[in-house]
Structures are given as structure tokens and as C-alpha cells.
Amino acid sequence: MTGDSVENGPLLKDLAFPYRVYDTGKDSRECLFLLHGSGVDETTLVPLARRIAPGATLVAVRGRIPQEDGFRWFERITPTRFEQKSILVETAAFAAFASEVARRHKLDLTRATFLGYSNGANLVSSLMLLHPGIVRGAALLRPMPVLDQLPAIDLAGTRTLIIAGAADETYGPFAPALVTLLNQHGAEVDARIVASGHEIGDPDVTIVRQWLTESAAAVRTG
To answer: With contact defined as beta carbons under 8 Å apart, do 105 and 15 qualify?
Structure first.
């Protein structure tokens, strides 16, 4: 699903990253930032997100690096090695973008969940590690660690869900290292493995929906 039609949510270009806002009109403070995988655009995670959180406001963001017929979030050298300067530049730009889009659309970042898939999940984890405090909740689908150097940070209070694919031969072997990394920096990590490859689908929807429900309950009682 692509295009700028009204039913898809108009493509907004008033900030550093093109984005669409899908507001259900319901009185809900739940918000999901959606960061797509490589070679597609911001609309591709919307159907999945609607199944996960039907009442949430969705902020579907487009990566700025062209790839084939779509986009990605930062430059890569190989499928598992990434251009570090590109990561730093794009992550810093996204940090500023997230704060500004929240201000303009009256969204509460402390209650928002950043849902990223593949390259989009890698941007979210970089955002957590390089600009702590912006992301308080993250659902990372098929991620891997991408940063060569890390600052000294404290991710205490950051809830993170990581879902790896048992048959994901490219990213899957690296997922445990990301779990360890985030744990070492104080994040609360829930790590899962599903019986799939790099693709995402029904098992991910079920797990993320349950995790969001549990996270919301923890926030209310915390």
C-alpha cells in the first residue's frame, strides 16, 4: 500500500522525515511510531500496527536513504555491516524529529512505543543507545546491533521487546548480542524467538499486542 491518498493518511513533509499520522479519533493516549524495513516505505507496517493496537494513533515515518523502489534508515556496507557516520547523522535527525512531531501533534513520548522492523528496528535501537530518554518503549522485530562504539548510558526504565526469527539466517544470529547489550545498559528486555525467518506476521502481532497490554499495566501500577 503506497501513495498519498487521504484514506492512507496524507504524506506530511513539514519536518526532517516524511511521515503520516493515522488518528482513530478515539480518546486514547496510546501511540505507535512505525519504522519500516529496507526497500519499502512508511505505509507497509500500518496494517500490522492496526492489528496490534487498533485504537492507537500511528506515526508512520519514511527513512531518508533511497533503496531500490523504497527507502531505508541508514547506509549499509554489507547486509550486516553499516556505515557508522550515516547511523549517527540519521539517528540524531530522528531524535529531533520525534520530539518535534510529538509537540506538533500533542503526543506523549513517555507513553509512545517505537515499533521497528529490520533496518527500522536497528534505527530504534540506535536511538535508544545514542539519545536515551526519547524512547521509553520499543518493540524491535528482527533487529541486530549496528553501532561500533557506544557512549556510557543508562537505559533504566526503558521497556524493550525483541523478537527474532529462528530461521532468520542473516539477522537472527546477532539478536542475542543486542539483548545482552541492552540488558547491560539497564533496559528491561523481553526477548522472544518465533518460528519464522526474517519475515514478520501473525506470531509477531500476538506477542507485541500482549506485551503492550502488559507494559501498559506496569506503567499504571508503577
So the answer is: no
Please state, in angstroms and rounded to a whole number, the distance separating the CA atoms of residues 170 and 184: 24
Whether 1 is covered by a domain: the verdict is: no
Closest CA to 144 of 184, 113, 117: 117
d(CA 82, CA 88): 11
Q: Which domain holds residue 80?
A: 7-221
Alpha-carbon distance of 94 to 19, in angstroms, equals 12
**pLDDT tens, residue by residue, 184-197:** 999 999 999 999 99
pLDDT value, residue 2: 38
Residue 188: CATH number of its domain: 3.40.50.1820
**Amino acid 220: pLDDT:** 57
Residues 6+ apart with CB under 8 A from 169: 197
pTM score over 0.90: yes
Please state, in angstroms and rounded to a whole number, the distance separating the CA atoms of residues 1 and 220: 36
Number of structural domains the chain divides into: 1
